[in-house]
Amino acid sequence: MTTSTTAAAADVSARARDLLGVSRLSNAALSSWLHGLPGVDQVGCEARAAALGTRSIKTSAKAWAIDAAISMIDLTTLEGADTVGKVRSLCAKALVPDPSEPATPRPAAVCVYGDMVATAREALGSSGIHVAAVATAFPSGRAMMDVKLADTADAVAAGADEIDMVIDRGAFLSGRYLQVFEEIARVKEACGSAHLKVIMETGELVTYDNVRRASWLSMLAGADFIKTSTGKVAPAATLPVTLIMLEAVRDWRDLTGEMVGVKPAGGIRTSKDALKYLVTVNETAGEDWLTPEWFRFGASSLLNDLLLQRQKLRTGAYSGPDYVTID
């Protein structure tokens, strides 16, 4: 642990104590603070998300939104059967998403397991496309803390720019908030200069109130991004859940002056779905979040549909799946 990361950890704890108004961070203090957050109106949240999902985007605005969505993708492969060849192929697609149109934007990152980071790093070179790695015993999060920290440190050493960690949902649901806070803060230390995305696995959090609490706890502990899901649990990303997370990062900036990113992941497969999310970002958090720096899609098949829609806007004809590569 370097002096800078130790200082960063101390800063996170000091900020948490200041925000909570306590001299010592405790589970009781975190519990009181998190349960003091306003409750989520389930009916209102779902109605708001449904209304935003009906917004229509046309012509030049649609073209911009498709390009923006492409640039926000973390192009992902997280399968037990992943091979070096598959990861290299995915990186090649990230570098040249559409060989027929060189002006096509590139995705923000390629996301892989830690043992594939070096392969992705070599394939992407100095392209500017980030390498993201899942860590901390993804997707379950069931491992000892030293294993989670080693998992993170190994991925960073291999060249990861971003770490996608999973919280201990069992600890969170049991009310052991200090344990979750300390785990996130320690993983953040292990990231060094790499950005940390905290996966809450919202499908296992049961209630919208828990999604709000987990969002605030993750930001309090130093998350650079809050992320919905691993993609391995149903339901994964949903518009109402993402709406709650966007409200959280908006309110966090109002409180602290700091911006935190949002990443819905899992189940977002079509351009139509992606555009609904972008409308929700704009109408909830604001246009400052409409960049890859602050909003990402965790996806694999989404890119192909966006490319087909982009080709249709450019040529006036729908090309069909034979005109994009199979992941």
In short:
The chain has helices at 3-20, 27-34, 42-52, 59-71, 84-95, 117-124, 145-157, 169-173, 177-191, 208-220, 239-256, 271-284, 302-315; strands at 73-76, 109-113, 130-134, 162-166, 195-199, 225-227, 261-263, 297-299. With 327 residues, it is of the alpha/beta class.
Explain this structure.
With 327 residues, the protein is of the alpha/beta class. Helices cover 50% and strands 10% of the residues. It has one domain (3-316): Alpha-Beta Barrel (TIM Barrel). Strand 2, helix 6 and strand 3 form a beta-alpha-beta unit. Helix 1 (3-20) runs antiparallel to helix 9 (177-191) and helix 7 (145-157) runs parallel beside helix 9 (177-191). The longest helix has 18 residues, at 3-20. Residues 1-5 have low confidence and may be disordered.
Radius of gyration: 19 Å
Number of helices, where a helix is a run of at least 4 consecutive DSSP H or I residues: 13
Structural class by helix and strand composition: alpha/beta
Low-confidence residue ranges: 1-5
Count of the separate structural domains: 1
Gap between N and C termini: 38 Å
The largest sheet has its strands arranged as: 7-6-5-4-3-2-1-8
- Spell out the CATH superfamily: Aldolase class I
Q: Largest sheet at a glance?
A: 8 strands, parallel
CATH architecture: Alpha-Beta Barrel
Broad CATH class: Alpha Beta
Produce the secondary structure layout.
Blueprint: H1 3-20, H2 27-34, H3 42-52, H4 59-71, E1 73-76, H5 84-95, E2 109-113, H6 117-124, E3 130-134, H7 145-157, E4 162-166, H8 169-173, H9 177-191, E5 195-199, H10 208-220, E6 225-227, H11 239-256, E7 261-263, H12 271-284, E8 297-299, H13 302-315
Parallel strand pairs: 1-2, 1-8, 2-3, 3-4, 4-5, 5-6, 6-7
Helix pairs in contact: 1-9, 3-11, 4-12, 4-13, 5-6, 7-9, 10-11, 11-12
